[in-house]
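Researcher: Please predict.
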Amino acid sequence: LSGGEQQRVAIARAFVTRPAMIFADEPTGNLDAKTGQHIIELLFGLNRDEGVTLVLVTHDPALASACDRRVTLDAGRIVHTESAPPSALEPSAS
């Protein structure tokens, strides 16, 4: 399987068990833009609709800005924390 296929399989396996918390390290890293957006909508939908706690690790500022809380690390140390309402990536009602 390609990297993207492996990533989609791992995400599907995580969703099947209906977890209370999902840890996702670069959840869209090996995916094309369309599939990545679908996965993000799924993750945020689980958070919003099912109360699943998401812990995301990303280098994508747009994805980070969609999170309720952001913790910035540098060399393994917390250098900044911020809590704010999600923005751009929250799925719209279009």
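Model: The chain has a mean pLDDT of 83.
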